[in-house]
Write a structure and sequence with these properties.
Blueprint: H1 2-15, H2 28-36, E1 85-88, E2 90-96, H3 107-118, E3 126-129, H4 134-147, E4 151-156, H5 171-183, E5 191-198, H6 204-208, H7 213-230, E6 234-237, H8 251-271, E7 278-282, H9 294-308, E8 317-319, H10 333-344, E9 349-352, H11 363-367, E10 371-374, H12 376-395, H13 402-413, H14 431-441, H15 449-461, H16 468-486, H17 495-499
Parallel strand pairs: 3-4, 3-10, 4-5, 5-6, 6-7, 7-8, 8-9, 9-10
Antiparallel strand pairs: 1-2
Helix pairs in contact: 1-2, 4-16, 5-7, 7-8, 8-9, 12-14, 12-15, 12-16, 13-15
Length: 500
């Protein structure tokens, strides 16, 4: 009884509220249960049972642990000293830092996101952000934390691979960096790390070298092996590219290659006792010009794949053309709804790539879209933020070299050529095209040593007037937060709210 009275007095002193003091001779265990069930007046979403803040309790901290969450991302002053919480086990438990992020969200847990979309009881679209830079990764995780939203981190083979990709991250390095960032957040969001475009010739080096099918397959398997070992739990098998053919590969080839890579991935997962994996497959994200009936091509692909794959390997997401394309704001809502119904008949959800510049992103949930990939668009935001810092530097009579360094690095890389039908020099392009390529192609060279050095120089030049790093991350975070709102993901980290 004395213990319970002390607890309530301490809570009242800390929160500035008066809690009733029980004087009945109730067993101490029940008293402790009653104490723990007292809701915080400052946390209206606090769960009513076993969700208490023990900061105000006179007992040693290790006797109980906080497991509530507040809708605000502002650290609670009563628990600011405690370690951040990362989703694990169930959607309603928060895990302390120190575990690989990819292991935190299991296949069973992901089904809590997916099931309401498949049966039509909820309308939201999962967001997958490509980690094109450290600033983008930090901003995306901060935005998801602020919005209490789930997040997919989707890394292509060009971005993150065993050779470091153009970001400099291996799969394990990306997982480690994600964990470090999440550990710095007051409430870390549920995160799934994914292989995006995990398929043969999806890596520029393979395509440019003219790798054979067997060489490209071996390279893909090496990527998948490293990703699964690092803790990735989502894999996009992309068999839509074949540089040795004129035009798109036939459906039968795509099915055979998708099937082969899926079976290899599953065999590796099972041999190593790894958790279940979510699979994404599909046809071209933008239908090739010589494909006259994309809907028929998609149906043939899904039907043949259904016939060859066992049910426990069935894909959860399917990529298809819904009108989005690189650098445009187009989204064909009516067509997208038809694709959604077509894919749903096969037990899967549609995932749209090239969602970066879509004008009506809020139409995705209304059309039943399951997922949206964002990549080059955030690089454009990062680029524009740096241009603004460059303008500030010039206004204070500094001489920034950042833009020239980035331009030179991008031209030197040659990666801009894949986005234009142009065999000449970069300078021969019109100014609008050059600017678009610099904006979106900046992602290829953020990790270039000369670009990094020039960026550091720029940050130092404006340091007296602007926290440059914070400014860039803020611009990126604002963009991601807007997407989370438009896709109706705010608050979806709590799956009770999501399903309701």
């Amino acid at each position: 009884m004395l213990l319970y009275s002390m607890c309530l007095q301490q809570r009242a002193a800390l929160w500035g509220t008066q809690q009733p003091v029980c004087i009945w001779p109730i067993p101490s265990a029940l008293l402790w249960l009653l104490y723990c069930s007292q809701p915080s007046p400052h946390s209206p979403k606090t769960r009513p049972l076993f969700h208490s803040a023990w900061s105000g309790c006179p007992l040693p901290a290790f006797w109980c642990r906080p497991c509530y969450w507040s809708p605000s991302s502002t650290p609670d002053p009563r628990t600011a000293h405690t370690k951040p919480r990362i989703h694990s086990g169930s959607w309603h438990s928060w895990k302390k830092r120190g575990t690989a992020m990819g292991n935190d969200v299991t296949q069973a847990q992901l089904s809590n996101w997916v099931a309401p979309l498949q049966d039509g009881t909820a309308a939201y679209t999962l967001l997958a952000v490509c980690p094109t830079s450290d600033a983008v990764l930090r901003a995306a995780l901060q935005a998801a934390s602020q919005a209490q939203a789930p997040l997919l981190i989707a890394a292509t083979r060009n971005q993150v691979d065993i050779d470091g990709g153009y970001t400099g991250w291996t799969p394990q390095a990306l997982m480690d960096r994600t964990e470090i960032i999440c550990a710095s957040l007051s409430e870390a969001p549920p995160v799934i790390t994914c292989v995006d475009h995990g398929g043969p010739w999806c890596k520029d080096a393979e395509r440019n070298a003219g790798a054979s099918w067997h060489e490209a397959k071996a390279g893909t398997q090496a990527t998948l092996r490293a990703a699964l070992d690092a803790g990735y739990r989502y894999v996009h098998i992309d068999a839509t590219i074949d540089p040795h053919r004129h035009g798109p590969p036939p459906v039968s080839d795509m099915v055979d290659r998708t099937d082969a890579l899926l079976r290899w991935t599953e065999a590796y997962r099972r041999e190593n006792g790894m958790p279940h994996i979510t699979y994404e497959v599909g046809i071209e994200e933008v239908a090739p010009p010589d494909v006259t009936d994309p809907s028929k091509r998609l149906e043939a692909f899904l039907t043949q794949l259904d016939a060859t794959l066992p049910s426990d390997m069935a894909p959860t997401f399917v990529v298809s053309d819904v009108g989005t394309s690189f650098g445009t704001g187009q989204f064909e809502a009516a067509h997208a709804q038809q694709v959604v119904e077509q894919v749903r008949a096969h037990g899967a959800l549609v995932k749209a790539h090239y969602s970066d510049f879509v004008d009506a992103l809020d139409a995705y949930p209304r059309c039943g879209m399951g997922g949206a990939n964002i990549g080059p668009g955030l690089s454009a935001v990062e680029y524009q933020a740096l241009r603004e810092l460059e303008a500030l530097a010039k206004a204070i009579d500094a001489t920034p070299t950042w833009h020239n360094a980035l331009r030179n690095a991008l031209v030197r890389s040659g990666r801009w050529r894949k986005w234009v039908d142009h065999d000449g020099a970069f300078d021969a392009l019109d100014d609008e095209t050059q600017n678009r390529l610099l904006e979106t192609g900046s992602r290829y060279v953020w990790a270039d040593p000369e670009v990094e050095a020039a960026r550091t120089e720029l940050y130092d030049q404006v340091a007296r007037y602007r926290d440059a790093d914070a400014y860039v991350v803020w611009r990126l975070r604002s963009a991601v937060e807007q997407m989370l709102h438009l896709l109706n993901l705010v608050g979806r980290a709590d799956m009770e709210a999501a399903i309701a």
